[in-house]
Specification:
The protein has 20 helices and 31 strands. With 654 residues, it is of the alpha/beta class. The strands form nine sheets. The protein has a seven-stranded mixed β-sheet with strand order 5-4-17-16-18-19-20, sandwiched between helices. The protein binds adenosine-5'-monophosphate-propyl ester. Adenosine-5'-monophosphate-propyl ester binds at residues 270, 317-318, 393-396, 418-423, 444, 505-507, 519, 521-522, 528, 533.
Length: 654
């Protein structure tokens, strides 16, 4: 396994973890899941969920079809995702129920949005989209921050049958253009400005720069948020407010388009092991059923009484599945927060939890570790007694963080669900079920009912209890990706060729004696920095695009807060020597090329990189250097002395 050395320490500490948290009888008595759920038949389970949880314009006539590796679900059904997330709730009399509490980054900017409000907003937005030419099948790119118009725009697209692609608001113009081009977007939706730590951030400005290189984009629809001045391109740019003020918000004027179960709902780009991000395809019925079902059982959602807060950004898959589609399909009341956890102070989240009476909180281990570092006093200033369930996602959680989370945020009683999944899986696949599972800090427990996960060795042999290897999925699941947009070969080679007939997740895992899974991190050239998935090669490409850089190798180093931190080893053209200014310049350069999340935490400028005799950079050894470990086998190096020099340079760094 690529990252086995790196995972070794974690594996030992996790396997020594013996604390156990059985469900309390009170929680178990009221849980949404029933104790026999794991015994249910896979087909019966998904058939029932599909029929009962989703409203169909025309029922499906076949549960699924699997022509390896392509799966289809709920075949020949007709439905609309927006109808399921919005209209049906209003029609059933829940129009006055709150769908979203929106909390802005700036003090006292708030909105309470009921399901009726959401319907009006979505219909108006959809009518505006229609008036600028969007119809079923039009590709719409969305580059918005965490403002109410983001879910509204997504739902408006779903209403019209226009596939959307949301690009995280922290991406650079170049990353935005790459994704919008690959998606062949015709329309781009953006906002004037967002906020970062109270300061305006020019999203439209970045979109303007991106659109110079996206010939398919014909129109840019601009939502006013900060009200700041922005450059304007007549003929291309359209102010949402100009059209929105006269657009009808009556649902009768904009019916929900009946879509086939397998119609494209959205693409979400994610990093893989090459420089080019992958456009992961998600379709309509299986995705919606998968996210709604998992959201209901795993978060034990009681739509009448719960207030659910997922701190992810909607620009990532967690936000799509567990802020927008899953919770809305289940008629949840959710909090959407525009800002960061420590602005204006480090108790911002806890203030939000107290004020809205949050009962379920879903966040990432990296955030929990930041809060641990800041200390529990920020949480203690607030009444968090309503919190009854906690979730984590995005990276392995160390037992200390898990326990801190339960103790200081969950009042020493809330179950913690450590949920494993991916952009590709669309929905949570490995997770505890609250009320049933005896929790182990650091373990994501068991595959969700109907999910067939296993751990394989390199030769596709299943590994039993106590062993470790590669995580695979052996049966299709409703929300699974339907491919990589415009790249079927990559879909096959990336996921299906390593263990033929099985989906290779790219993660290492171990199974313990009880059959519980312990996720060990990526086994490929993908890093996980603060829960963000980044490709080493994407960052290397960005570095070598700088005029000073000759070669670059990037790897992850374990970091106590961010999980992994990015270390870049760089050689400069003409043997030029490094300096603090060049290091700074290269970090900024990566930030500009990809986005601030991809900035290396350290850049080591060196005369040479360690290579094999055939010229391959030995990343394994660089990882040893980055982690300050004893070097592994160096016998295949063309010039072993190179490494000693790099080590010196790396250690000389501040
Ligand atoms: O390595 C796993 C890690 O995050 C990867 C998926 O990243 P992304 O597609 O960006 O989706 C993140 C949100 C679903 C996985 O391959 N990962 C995610 N959840 C966990 C995890 N690793 C360990 N434990 C988890 N609970």
């Amino acid at each position: 396994m690529g990252s086995s050395e790196q995972g070794e320490h974690a594996i030992h500490t996790m396997f020594l973890e013996e604390r156990r948290y059985p469900p309390s009888p009170e929680f178990a008595a009221q849980a949404n899941v029933k104790a026999d759920v794991y015994e249910r038949d896979f087909e019966e389970f998904w058939e029932t969920e599909g029929r009962e949880r989703i409203s169909w314009f025309q029922p499906f006539d076949k549960l699924y079809e699997w022509e390896l590796p392509y799966a289809k679900w709920y075949l020949n059904g007709k439905l609309n995702v927006c109808y399921n997330c919005v209209d049906r709730h209003v029609e059933s009399g829940a129009g006055d129920k709150v769908a979203f509490y929106w909390e802005g980054e700036l003090a006292d900017t708030r909105r309470t949005i009921t399901y009726s409000d959401l319907q009006s907003d979505v219909v108006r937005f959809a009518n505006v989209l229609k008036s600028i030419g969007v119809k079923k099948g039009t590709h719409v790119a969305i580059y918005l921050g965490m403002i109410p118009e983001l879910p509204v725009a997504m739902l408006a697209c779903a209403r019209l049958g226009a596939p959307h692609c949301v690009i995280f608001g922290g991406f650079s113009a170049e990353s935005l253009a790459d994704r919008a081009n690959d998606f062949e977007a015709e329309i781009m939706i953006t906002q004037d400005e967002g906020y970062r730590r109270g300061k305006p951030l020019g999203l439209k400005k970045i979109a303007d720069e991106a659109v110079l290189n996206t010939p398919s984009v014909k129109k840019m629809l601009v939502v006013a948020h900060s009200g700041g001045d922005v450059a304007w391109t007549e003929g291309r740019d359209i102010r949402y407010d100009d059209l929105g003020k006269d657009a009808s918000s009556d649902p009768a004027d904009c019916p929900c388009e009946p879509m086939d179960s397998e119609d494209l709902l959205f693409l979400m780009y994610t990093s893989g092991t090459t420089a080019k991000p992958k456009g992961i395809i998600h379709t309509t019925a299986g995705y919606l059923t998968g996210v709604a079902t998992t959201h209901n059982y795993i978060f034990d959602l009681k739509p009448e009484t719960d207030v659910y807060f997922c701190t992810a950004d909607i620009g990532w898959i967690t936000g799509h599945s567990y802020i927008v589609y899953g919770p809305l399909a289940n008629q949840a009341t959710s909090v959407i927060f525009e800002g960061t956890p420590d602005f204006p102070d480090k108790d911002r989240w806890w203030d939000i939890c107290e004020r809205y009476g949050v009962t379920i909180l879903y966040t990432a281990p990296t955030a929990i570790r930041s809060h641990m570092k800041w200390g529990p006093e920020y949480a203690q200033k607030h009444d968090l007694s309503k919190i009854r369930l906690l979730g984590t996602v995005g990276e392995p959680i160390n037992p200390e963080a898990w326990i801190w989370y339960r103790e200081h945020i969950g009042g020493d009683k809330a179950p913690v669900v450590d949920t494993w999944w991916q952009t590709e899986t669309g929905m949570i696949l490995i997770t505890p079920l609250p009320g049933i599972t005896t929790l182990k800090p650091g373990s994501a427990s068991r595959p969700f009912p109907g999910v067939d996960a296993a751990v394989y060795d390199e030769s596709s042999n299943e590994i039993g209890p106590g062993g470790g290897g590669y995580l695979v999925l052996r049966k299709p699941w409703p929300a699974m990706l339907r491919g990589i947009y415009n790249d079927p070969d990559r879909f096959l080679s990336n996921y299906w060729s390593l263990f033929p007939g099985n989906y290779a997740a790219g993660d290492g895992a171990r199974i313990d004696e009880d059959g519980d899974f312990w996720l060990m991190g990526r086994v490929d050239d993908v890093m996980n920095v603060s829960g963000h998935r980044l490709s080493t090669i994407e960052i290397e490409s960005a570095l070598v695009a700088h005029p000073l850089v000759a070669e670059a190798a990037v790897c992850g180093r374990a970091d106590p807060v961010t999980g992994q931190a990015i270390v870049a080893f760089v050689t400069l053209k003409g043997g030029k020597e490094g300096s603090d200014e060049i290091v700074k310049e290269l970090r900024m350069h990566v930030g500009k090329k990809i986005g601030p999340i991809a900035r290396p935490s350290s850049v080591v400028i060196t005369a040479e990189l360690p290579k094999t005799r055939s010229g391959k950079i030995m990343r394994r050894l660089l990882r040893d250097v980055a982690e300050n470990r004893e070097l592994g086998d160096t016998t295949t190096l063309a010039d072993p002395s190179v490494l000693a020099k790099i080590q010196q340079q790396a250690q000389a760094k501040p």
